[in-house]
Amino acid sequence: MAKKRALEEPPGAKISGREGKRQKKGFSVGPANLPDGTYRRKVQKIKETLIHKAKVKKSYAKIKARELHGDAAAGRPPFSTETDEAEHAPAGTAEPHPDRQALLDCPPSPPPLKHPPRQRQQRSPQKPRHTPYAKESTLATTLRKQREEAAAQRHAKIAERERARRVMAKARSGGARKLGRESVLLLERVRKVIGADGG
User: Fold this and answer.
1) Torsion sign, CA atoms 65, 71, 72, 74
2) pLDDT digits (tens, 9 = 90+) for 66-95
């Protein structure tokens, strides 16, 4: 029979296969199987911002460590406000710097305005606002006017007929025809017929 493999390999033995070289897998944000679209782009943007923040933190930590190391070597407390030049500067100088003295000597000028006064610009007359259904609205108003005119003519005809019926009813009161009353109505009818045929 073959010899069984030992549970623990000897310390000098070479590790082979996948176990020896494990690649670091990057971190993932959101589901892995997203189709390309707005949600995927948003997830990618979040991942990029996280990576950027991590890089900034890492560089800040390096700078901070360098500052702490440099300050400890100089014998100063970390992040002190004193600079090397301030420590070596002479203590008895009471005169201001020549540039500052020149600024103090010149007359004070009025402070500059934060916002310059605005000049009013002439606006061009506004164009009439575009309505989405302009053609339909004009068509609707013309149709409405036509219907109103037709209704007014219809009412006028009905009123004329009713008036003629009343006149004829008065002319025939009691069974006998009164031609004097009928004549006005009959004359109007004849004029209408002649006007319609002759015109």
Assistant:
1) positive
2) 888 876 666 665 555 555 554 555 555 678
At residue 103, φ and ψ (nearest 5 deg) are: -65, -35
Give the length of the chain: 199
* % pLDDT > 90, the chain: 25
Answer whether 35's CB lies under 8 Å from 48's CB: no
Half-sphere exposure in the Cβ direction for 82 (13 Å, CA): 11
Q: Where are the alpha helices (DSSP H) in 21-133?
A: 38-74, 84-88, 98-105
- What is the structure's pLDDT at 159? 94
Alpha-helical runs (H) found in 75-172: 84-88, 98-105, 134-171
Q: How far apart are CA 46 and CA 54, in angstroms?
A: 12
Say which residue the tokens 């015109």 belong to: 199
Q: The whole model's pTM is what?
A: 0.31
Does residue 170 contact residue 162 with C-beta atoms inside 8 Å?
no
Q: pLDDT: is 23 or 102 the higher one? A: 102
Distance CA 28, CA 185 (A): 100
Rounded Cα gap, residues 75 and 81, in angstroms: 14
